[in-house]
Write a structure and sequence with these properties.
Elements (H helix, E strand, L loop, with lengths): L18 H4 L9 E5 L3 H13 L3 E5 L2 H10 L4 E5 L7 H9 L10 E5 L4 H10 L3 E4 L4 H13 L1 H8 L5 E2 L8 H8 L2 H12 L5 H10 L3 H18 L2 H16 L7 H16 L8 E4 L5 E3 L1
Parallel strand pairs: 1-2, 1-3, 3-4, 4-5, 5-6
Antiparallel strand pairs: 7-8
Length: about 290
């Protein structure tokens, strides 16, 4: 297998496109970061990224675990996924803001692929301090933490907290390349097999759900797959799976989306093959909805 390239050194912590951020020059020391994320691959990636940036990380699977963690110790910042089971990111943020004592003031960075203004406003209303889009890039994450932990007070005075900060920063290395740079090769390959395996992979499972018109199964699988694809930079596959997620939520016909899913999966495998990582490959759908090897 080809060697996995090393991630570049962490970039400077200024946000060059945001005047408020540029007014903040204090360095960002090592932080205690609480990550709320339900998908295992995303958990490992965010842990690896934050550790690479020099921070201490604790991971929670859902909002209830976040509240329990805050009851035990103090954190400098919380990285909160919007969509989680049981208690989602927005409801968890509201619950944190209602806590007694210092825990209620913990800065919260909301993470989501949904960057619509409506979503940002909902995050603001719930008490989020910043908003980082998926796929999460090192520069965007550092910029958000810089604003929240070091300079958020100044920014609040200057801007009246009219909206949550949406951290973008300058263009960074390709999200897929960043993922490959940070994750152990064994973890990467386990993720790929789990996603693309033609016998029991998640794409095979969701195709079966499409053929059987199983709304609940398709929705749950689509949500998981979409989040993982967004995090690692397989954006086109994430878009198609997101359409399936929405269709399953509405109860629409599902089988019509199978060809687009197979096409997007093939294109994702081509991107992975360019990195020397294509070990399993989806082909066409059979009458039973299986994904067969090429």
């Amino acid at each position: 297998a080809p060697a996995v390239p090393a991630l570049d050194a962490p970039p400077a912590l200024n946000h060059p496109t945001d005047e408020a951020a540029n007014r903040t020059h204090a360095p960002l020391h090592s932080l205690r970061v609480l990550v709320a994320e339900d998908y295992p691959v995303n958990q490992k990636y965010l842990r690896a990224l934050l550790t690479h940036l020099g921070h201490e990380v604790q991971v929670c699977n859902d909002g209830q675990e976040v509240l329990q963690a805050l009851d035990r110790r103090r954190f400098d910042v919380i990285l909160m996924d919007v969509h989680m089971p049981a208690l989602d990111g927005l409801a968890t943020t509201q619950a944190i803001r209602a806590l007694p004592g210092e825990a209620a003031q913990t800065p919260i960075i909301m993470v989501s692929a949904d960057v619509l203004q409506e979503t940002r406003q909902r995050a603001l209303h719930c008490g989020a301090n910043a908003f980082v889009p998926k796929p999460v890039e090192a520069q965007s994450l550092q910029a958000a933490m810089q604003l929240c932990v070091v300079g958020y007070g100044d920014q609040a005075d200057a801007l009246g907290v009219a909206h949550p900060v949406v951290a973008h920063g300058p263009k960074q290395p390709d999200a897929l390349q960043q993922f490959l740079s940070l994750m152990p090769q064994a973890t990467v390959r386990k993720f790929l097999v789990g996603l693309f395996d033609p016998q029991a992979g998640e794409l095979q499972q969701i195709l079966s759900a499409l053929h059987s018109e199983s709304d609940e199964c398709a929705f749950n699988l689509a949500h998981q797959i979409k989040g993982a694809c967004q995090m690692v930079g397989l954006s086109e596959l994430a878009v198609v799976v997101g359409v399936i997620e929405s269709a399953a939520r509405r109860g629409d016909a599902l089988m019509v989306h199978a060809p687009a899913l197979v096409t997007a999966a093939r294109e994702a495998m081509q991107a992975l093959a360019a990195q020397g990582l294509a070990e399993v490959e989806p082909a066409d759908t059979s009458e039973q909805g299986a994904v067969t090897s090429a």
